[in-house]
């Protein structure tokens, strides 16, 4: 027989109701990333890019896309599930 005690699984709503300061910070960063990403796209589409700033804007847009995709991968990917599982084990 095993010495481990089985714990009941908490519903997802119960797990997500306990938002930590770190998660709140991640939410803020994700929102800022999305706003920055779409803000830059709107500015580019409405004004165009001056020829002398094309390389700089390419770098900025690339960084924003990377951050946007990274935050999406965290919130919708396996990292959020892993974090919920870790909280459940700790609790």
Molecular structure report:
This protein is mostly helical and about 90 residues long. It has a domain at about 20-70. The chain has 4 helices and no strands. Helix 2 (about 20-45) runs antiparallel to helix 3 (about 55-75).
What is the arithmetic mean of pLDDT? 76
Could you tell me the number of beta strands?
Answer: 0
Structural class: mainly alpha
Task: Sketch the topology as an H/E string, one letter per element.
Answer: HHHH
Q: Helical residue percent?
A: over 70%
Through-space gap between termini? 24 Å
Fraction in beta strands: under 5%
Characteristic terms for this protein:
mainly alpha; 4 helices; 91 residues; single chain
Describe how the helices and strands are arranged:
Elements: H1 12-16, H2 21-47, H3 54-76, H4 78-90
Helix pairs in contact: 2-3
Quick overview of this protein structure:
The chain has 91 residues and is an all-alpha fold. The chain has helices at residues 12-16, 21-47, 54-76, 78-90.
């Amino acid at each position: 027989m095993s010495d481990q005690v089985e714990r009941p699984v908490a519903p997802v709503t119960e797990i997500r109701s306990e938002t930590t300061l770190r998660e709140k910070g991640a939410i803020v960063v994700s929102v800022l990333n999305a706003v920055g990403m779409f803000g830059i796209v709107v500015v580019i589409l409405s004004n165009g890019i001056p020829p002398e700033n094309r390389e700089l804007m390419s770098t900025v847009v690339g960084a924003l896309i990377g951050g946007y995709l990274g935050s999406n991968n965290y919130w919708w990917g396996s990292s959020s599930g892993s974090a919920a599982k870790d909280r459940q084990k700790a609790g």
